[in-house]
Write a structure and sequence with these properties.
It comes from Brassica cretica (Mustard). This is Secondary thiamine-phosphate synthase enzyme. Pfam families: YjbQ. InterPro entries: UPF0047_YjbQ-like, YjbQ-like_sf. By secondary structure, the chain is α+β, with helices and mostly antiparallel strands. It has a five-stranded antiparallel β-sheet, with helices on one face. Strands 4-9-6 form a three-stranded antiparallel β-sheet. A hairpin with a 2-residue loop joins strand 7 and strand 8. The chain is elongated, with a radius of gyration of 22 Å. The two termini are 36 Å apart.
Length: 182
């Protein structure tokens, strides 16, 4: 490791990286290989309409997996991109076992983002819960990327995909799932 100095400013250390060549696996003989026999990447995409949910954080992993199971099973290695087509809800990966985590997360969001007619927001045309919903959506985001390993979403034991509904009125939500890999 060396340190570079230029223009009188000390830069971050420069890292030296050594590359190691690993020969490609032969999927016909290597049972542990995740390479596809053709080696060609493939794509699949599906738009899923989620049923209206009450305000709060909801575990949607089973719904997503049910809808993409057939396509997902054709991938040995890849990525699943999950995109929510809305600005007043969000996606996140979090605890999939204890529903108290979902309730506590909703409590936290409602504590840090003020709501109601006394809140300082100018955007109120769609109701007093709309602008806070936009802020909460921006905090968690509207997209996730999840590894695919041997035909399954490669998440941890206690991880699940949540839809966080930030509006008071339940609304159906659309999610586009794009799979890419081999």
């Amino acid at each position: 490791m060396t340190t570079s100095i230029f223009s009188g400013v000390v830069a971050l250390p420069t890292l030296r990286v050594r590359s190691v060549f690993t020969p490609a696996a032969n999927p016909a003989t290597d049972r542990g290989s995740m390479a596809s026999p053709s080696g060609a990447p493939k794509w699949a995409q599906k738009t899923i309409t989620l049923p209206p949910q009450r305000r709060g954080c909801h575990l949607i992993t089973p719904m997503i997996v049910k809808e993409i199971r057939q396509d997902l099973s054709g991938f040995n290695c890849g990525l699943a991109h999950v995109f929510l087509q809305h600005t007043s809800a969000s996606l996140t990966i979090n605890e999939n076992y204890d529903p108290d985590v979902q309730a506590d997360t909703e409590t936290f969001l409602n504590t840090i983002v003020p709501e109601g007619r006394s809140a300082p927001w100018r955007h109120t045309m769609e109701g007093p819960d709309d602008m806070p919903a936009h802020i909460k959506s921006s905090m968690f985001g509207c997209q996730l990327t999840i590894p695919i390993t041997k035909g399954k979403l490669s998440m941890g034991t206690w991880q699940g995909i949540w839809l966080c509904e930030h509006r008071d009125a339940p609304t159906a939500r659309k999610v586009v799932v794009t799979l890419n890999g081999i």
